[in-house]
Write a structure and sequence with these properties.
By secondary structure, the protein is mainly alpha-helical. Helix content is 74%, strand content 0%. The two termini are 31 Å apart.
Length: 321
Amino acid sequence: MISIPHKAKQFLVLLIKVLIVGGAFYFIYNQLANNDKLDWQKFIVLFQKNQSISGIIFILSLSVLNRYFEILKWQNLVSFLHKISVGEATKQVLGALTAGLFTPNGVGEYAGKALFFEKSNAKKIIFLNLICNGIQMILTIIFGFFGLIYFNSLYHVITTKTVLVVFGILILLFILLFSVKKITIKGYSLEKLIHKINEIPKSIHQKNIFLGICRYIVFSHQYYFLFLAFDVDLPYLTLLATITSVYFLASSLPTFQFLDFAVKGSVAVYFFGILGVNEWIVIFISTLMWFLNVVLPVAIGSYYVLNFKIITPLEGTGDKI
């Protein structure tokens, strides 16, 4: 095996850090500067009309809460391995978010978090991150499914028969999945996965679910309050059902973090178009949601990436899984 000199390794790590941060900000700038659907003139006029310092602080506070609940989720799950502070959890979550910015569905985030731990714990960290993201996806599906049913009952986008067929297929897939849980593929099986999940104390799972619900409520209502700020006057349940439907359908599409607003925006344009909301308003709100909940955290996460130090075996943590 070829041994890389220490100085060369340091330079390589620095180069990777700069490429990650530089790439992140390039993609952010490119999406904001070259999106011809963003009418900045209309935005400025509306902003000047409705500008409110308290309103801006409120919307920003929801972005802070959104990431804070995610940080608490991660701190809670990692406590199964060992205790970490909120500050350490913040560094890991935001640093990994930056590293996963231009990977499909944020896959790079898994590797990003694993880098903060000893190599022997890499698989365990990836597994814990899978649970962390998994519960958020399950909540998105649950809330989104009921939101979609409510939206469809008002606007009849698809027939009741189609809804029942889709629901029936989901139930069949669920039953089929558990009926073959003992089948092993490359040493992995659903039964083994369930066993691993059950090894984690119920109190950690319960707290993870609670924090996931809190996070979902925060970012869905941030979307809701932004529509109110843009003078969109629709009933609360209708607007919220549309938001949950958009998140449900958009989350099922493979995408990159830096294109997240474009995917959600295109789905949102269709649904809010049915409600009669102007396309430019939907695009702007989707972009603002992306800016507040991805761009700003990435800007902070870039600091942690640039200051990242490789964990040596002596700095590692104990083995509990």
